[in-house]
Amino acid sequence: MRAAWAITSTTVKQLLGVRRMIVFGLAELAPAGVFLLMTQTLAEEAALDRLLGMVAALYFPLLVPIVTLIVAASALGDERRDGTLSFLVLRPIPRSVVALSKSAGAVIVAAGLNALGALALSAVYAVETGSWSMVVPLVVGGVVASVVYAALFVPLGFFTDRAVLAGLAFVFIFENSVVSALSGLSSLSPWRIGLSAFAGLAPGEVATELADFGAASLSGSGAALFRTVLIAAISVGATTMVLRRRDLA
Amino acid sequence: MTANPALVESPTVELDDASKWFGQKVAVSNVTCSFGPGVTGLLGPNGAGKTTMLRMLTGLIRPSQGSVRVLGVWPRTSPSVYADVGLVPEEAAVYPSLTAREYVRYAATLSGIADVAEATDRAIDTVGLGGPADRKLAGYSKGMRQRAKVAAALVSDPQILLLDEPLNGTDPVQRLHLINLFQRLGAEGRTLIVSSHILDEVDRMSDRVIAIVDGRLAAAGDVAAIREAMTDIPYRVRIESDTGRVLAARLLEEALVHGVSVDDRILLVETSDLAALGRRVPAVAREVDARITSFQPEDASLESVFRYLVRR
After folding, report:
1. Which residues 152-181 in chain A show a CB within 8 A of chain B?
2. Could you tell me where in chain B the CATH 3.40.50.300 domains are found?
3. Which residues of A touch B83 (CB under 8 A)?
4. What are the start and end residues of each CATH 3.30.70.100 domain in chain B?
């Protein structure tokens, strides 16, 4: 337990570079800024429509995956590239602890950043409408999507030096093109899983409204959470297996 | 002692017919050897396969063929053995955002040490890194990073230490400190395997040498024994005398002398039996009334031995 916490906290420290935090922090606040501008310029549009437009077109499909990709791909990838992986694995601790702790560190940072974006968006919405009902659903949705993306991108970062490129291809070609065209594949899209969690927890009209933004096949928060746990468990299991079996230098 | 100089009597680390290839490239080929308490120098030119061999010993990479055992087990499947193994890798392998103290403390925590703070302080003191230990590793020189890595490897008080080019980047003072430390740890009964391509380092700190050339075990044992085993290469001895040519002519009559070249007062004598020549030369010199001012084996040093091994 002590080792797991040490790896997780060190991973968080590694991933929280000052420059990275400034860039990502500003990026996370950008949708809220745009939303705020829209309240001035598009005041005739319903606040909920504007919020959902930001959430379904910018926050979930772009911001969450890109931020999580860069953070998560570094978690194990940097250890491999910098030669510090031997420092971690040549210890009397199971490889599963290494895999789980590195993933947990990536999730904490990515989910924290994405939760900031969700909080900012829902805060602007609350200021405009007086309703804080979107805060928890949006934060949970962002965290869920972060966990699923991290589950994919932590092992990806370990496998290839071009993880960011491969991750962007996954997000833009597979998720935002292929899955958009073939809605039957939506359960394989992390940001749609996050969006489902958000829609399932948000007030009733949100799910209906989201259909207008091309998010027709949402699965509900229960299914989203189940998928998230399943994907995360598979990811940790697969990473553990790779750390056990693959040559690590 | 065992008959095979590559094997030791009470091994803690063993390779049995171990090979490793990466695609078409063979990095280590059919190496059988073992290591026990004391300092063993793993010697070889750059690219000889030393690092691959050390990585196999730690379980970082698995042998393509053969087996590796550390304290009787294959480490990859028995991670508990890592409590007794410390590795100082050749590459940077430090976290620049941590201070040296945090780095060593991290190693102690991951190694399951009970009193992390005490073990950390002790390891830092052992490598003489006390003052700058609270500075970030990003600002460290290569030599200081090496010492931080050694401290992290030592923090769990391991029985086996694998050191890959540990003196790289160290200044002469740091180098001397680390060599003394390694010798002390070896004398305490720990197994130290120190890889290096710098002959002088290996010569100074090792009780025993395992020489790797082109991925193969080229020689094993102490330097004198390895040189002695090279029966196809005669020893070369540099003798200085006041009567060079007379002494050379007389020495050529000796059966144990294979050849002599003379340059004024200096003779280069080739012999298959260095000890016998050492005993015979004074008598021969007396016969021809020559005065010997110097008798110096030219190629019994580790450097010469290694040069022969690489050339073979």
Report:
1. none
2. 13-221
3. 92
4. 229-311
**Residues A97, A95: Cα–Cα separation, whole Å:** 5
Integer Cα distance of B131 and B134 in angstroms: 8
- Please report the DSSP string for B128-185 in residue order: T-TGGGGSBGGG--HHHHHHHHHHHHHTT--SEEEEESTTTT--HHHHHHHHHHHHHH
Architecture, CATH, for domain B229-311: 2-Layer Sandwich (3.30)
Chain B residues close to A248, C-beta within 8 Å? 60-61
Average pLDDT over chain B reads 88
Distance CA A163, CA B67 (A): 34
Question: Euclidean distance between the first and final Cα of chain A, in Å?
Answer: 26
Mention every residue, 6+ apart, whose C-beta is less than 8 A from residue B39: B182, B183, B185, B186, B192, B194, B205, B206, B207, B208
CB contact under 8 A, A92 and B79: yes
Closest Cβ opposite residue A2 in set B81, B98, B109? B109
The two tokens of residue B181 are: 């430390």
pLDDT higher than threshold 90 for residue B124: yes
Residues of B in contact with A109 (CB under 8 A): none
The CATH label, of 3.30.1360.20, 3.40.50.300, 1.10.20.140, 2.60.40.790, for the domain at B13-221 is: 3.40.50.300
Distance from CA of A18 to the nearest CA of B (A): 11
B109 near A CB under 8 A: yes
The answer to whether the Cβ–Cβ distance between A247 and B81 falls below 8 Å is no
ipTM of the complex: 0.85
How near does any CA of chain B get to the CA of A74, in Å?
Answer: 13
Per residue, the 3-state secondary structure of B191-256, as one string, reads EEEEEECCHHHHHHHCCEEEEEECCEEEEEECHHHHHHHCCCCCEEEEEEECCHHHHHHHHCCCCC
Task: State the helix-helix crossing angle for A47-54 and A95-129, rounded to 10 degrees.
Answer: 160
First to last CA, chain B: 27
B102 Cβ contact list (under 8 Å, min separation 6): none
Domain extents in chain A: 2-245
Per-window interface: A 84-123 vs B, CB < 8 A: 84, 86-95
Rounded to whole angstroms, the Cα distance separating B257 from B243 reads 18
Mark yes or no for CB contact A13/B85 under 8 Å.
no
Max Cα–Cα distance, chain B, nearest Å: 74
Instruction: Determine the distance in angstroms separating the CA of B39 from the nearest CA of chain A, rounded to an integer.
Output: 21
Rg (CA), chain B: 23
The C-alpha of B2 sits at a distance from chain A's nearest C-alpha, in angstroms, of 31
Show the CA angle centred on residue B39, arms to residues B37 and B45, nearest 5°.
135
| Model pLDDT for residues A82-105, shown as the tens digit of each residue | 889 889 999 999 999 999 999 999
Closest residue in chain A to residue B58, using alpha carbons only? A90
pTM of the model: 0.82
* Averaged pLDDT, B270-277: 85
